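Suppose a colleague, Dr. K., hands you the sequence of a protein chain of 643 amino acids and asks what its three-dimensional shape might be. Before reaching for any lab equipment, you can write down a predicted structure in token form. Begin with the sequence itself:
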Amino acid sequence: MSEAHSDELLAQVAALPHMPGVYRYFDAQDGVLYVGKARDLKKRVSSYFQKNHGGTRIGHMIGKIARLETTVVRSEAEALLLENNLIKSLNPRYNILFRDDKSYPYLKIVSHAFPRVAYYRGAVDRKHAYFGPYPNAWAVKESIQLLQKVFRLRTCEDTVFVNRTRPCLLYQIKRCSGPCVNLVSPEDYAKDVENAKAFLLGDTQTVLQQLEARMLRHSESLEFEQAAELRNQMTALSRVLHQQSIETISDKDVDILAVRVQGGRACVNLAMVRGGRHLGDRPYFPTHIEDASVVQEFDDELEGGAAVQRTPVEVQVLDAFIAQHYIGVPVPPALITSHPADRDLIAALSEQAGVKVSAVHAPREQRRIWLEMAEKNAEIQLTRLLAEEGSQQARTRALVEALDLAPDNLDTFRIECFDISHTAGEATQASCVTYHHHKMQNSEYRRYNIDGITPGDDYAAMRQVLMRRYAKLAEAGRDPPEATPKSGGGGSAQRLPDLVLVDGGKGQVSMAREVFAELGLDLSVIVGVEKGEGRKVGLEELVFADGRDKVYLGRESAALMLVAQIRDEAHRFAITGMRARRAKVRVGGSRLEEIPGIGAKKRARLLQRFGGVRGVAAAGVEDIASVEGISRELAEEIYRALH
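The predicted structure, expressed as tokens, is then:
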């Protein structure tokens, strides 16, 4: 047990039962640190206190625990629901949290001899008919306008309705049937209300069939004016169905959940389909992602040991949203998700709602279209959030100030960032991405194939890419950055950058320092992005080549946001290029299999020893013959086949 905790707390932990439940950790100031659930309270909670976690982030949290509260429940489902109720009410620091915002709006059909449609927000009851919830007020108002156009239902308050002596403007523009002055019979109005309800529930074909039957009856009775009204109603409804692209499929009520994570922030985009109609989207931005992911990794290890697969951040965010969002909001029978949702969570949700809830993360046909729309909107909303939290210009300025730089023109302040990517030494590529005028300059991105190094030697790869990138500029003259002549056509680097970021710590910075010293370039422009504890976003430190002390910018720093954005882009660009090159190289792998005497095992040994086909091709006969199972004669045959 940990010596940093009181005997009272440790005794409480030792006395916990072997039952499912929920536990809460509090610090000395009675602030809530973490809310968790467990199949076995004693086993799970004891695991936190059984070893010294050192200076890790999980150790930092555990060291703060001053007291503990637990609640025993009957089942894991109950534990899951209680856990997320407590998360929403207690706002713990180490849980992913979706903050409550204003309630969802509904479309309300008010009970009356001539029911009216209205916008409504609040608690629902059984006296009136409610449809929704809708993602936003606009979606409700658009639906009300639709009902006015097609079914001509009234929207006026009862006080206005009972005092009318002649129809209002809405009747004149055919948005109301005029029940206030008896221009429509109670029976016909009631039928319009029922059709409107059926339409909102997605029974559009039933509505059209009923309207057609009524139209034919009026036509047979020579009531051509009434028949014409119904014909116009059918035409309006058909037009709306066409414009709304309503699909007559089994999905009447569906929620689509798309998750995107970038730069330490996340967005869950919720798209709602009600009655077969896509009503729109609503973004949610959780907090505490970095801290929560640390505890989640620790919990994963407790569940399955050190070798267990870590839960991706996107899945953590999705599960947290589902668990917290549907506590106070009706859950539809179908969820479509961008990532697989926890099965136990969906089962608990079904039990809570009293209906069977299904979750699909690899949909087809129309569902796939809905999900792609939601994913795109999540990406857009997250980009907007990052822009709002600190504009690119503000981020550039913050970085310049944090590094104590003094560029003549902030707009032309140029950053180049390098990253190395490979798979076990195979298909090594370096990427260089460029940032200036407060945005990434895609047309100036460059990839470099790295050859002639020991497979997996990232330092040698960094040296090679920096030499290839800056040697010609250095040889062209020792002009200051603003005076370096620009190359035409946006080819190679137009001038020496004001800042060179390398994705790595002291080792990569030392290599970059050697290259710049050899080329006679300014060492002060080199900055390494060293991953912090646990390699978590927000804990990076900047390492300098000119001997300055490390700088920690702070998780909320606009300067760090810019560094992370550029670093992530360099990483993405490197990985995509490496994968493309690896695929191209591996096509040539079949050349080994075509050599007589080379089977799967010998091929695997060769690729493992030399890091890929290119490595085998670059090896000499003696080196090839040193591989287990490869004779001198076979080595010579391999060498001839690859040259």
